[in-house]
Amino acid sequence: MATHEFGIMEAAPGNERYDSYEPQNYGCICIDDDFIEPLMPDFEGIPCYCHTRFIPTNNLVYSGITLIPPESAKLFVAIFKKYNTGQYNTIIDLFERAINQEKYIIHYGL
């Protein structure tokens, strides 16, 4: 089963690159790709970063590492809530905690 992992970053990213798979460092939760892949078109246009704050992107990095700033997390939550019938409760909770704490979210794609 292919999954995406999301976690809250305690410190905002600086100049470093995030190239290593380290979900244990961020208390990541796993979301099955069956729940993420269909939303990718809806995520288009949401400002994020690819592996470092110096490579902007406008969606999740599907097969890499995404850094999601707090202001963009709100846009993701709106999409998750739009399609939620219970399957997104855990990720909505994580994103809302990050928003309330003004923290970045790290995403490990497939």
Q: Strands, helices and their partners?
A:
Blueprint: E1 3-8, E2 29-32, H1 33-36, H2 40-43, E3 48-50, E4 56-57, E5 65-68, H3 70-83, H4 89-101, E6 105-108
Antiparallel strand pairs: 1-2, 1-6, 3-4, 3-5, 5-6
Output the structural class: alpha+beta
Determine the mean pLDDT.
Answer: 97
Net shape: globular
Calculate Rg over CA atoms: 12 Å
Strand content: 15-25%
Largest sheet: 6 strands, antiparallel
Spatial arrangement of strands, main beta sheet:
2-1-6-5-3-4
Give your account of this protein's structure:
The protein is of the alpha+beta class. It contains four helices and six strands, in the order ββααβββααβ. The protein has helices at 33-36, 40-43, 70-83, 89-101, and strands spanning 3-8, 29-32, 48-50, 56-57, 65-68, 105-108. Strand 3 and strand 4 form a beta hairpin. The longest helix is centred in the last third of the chain and has 14 residues, at 70-83. It is globular and about 40 Å long.
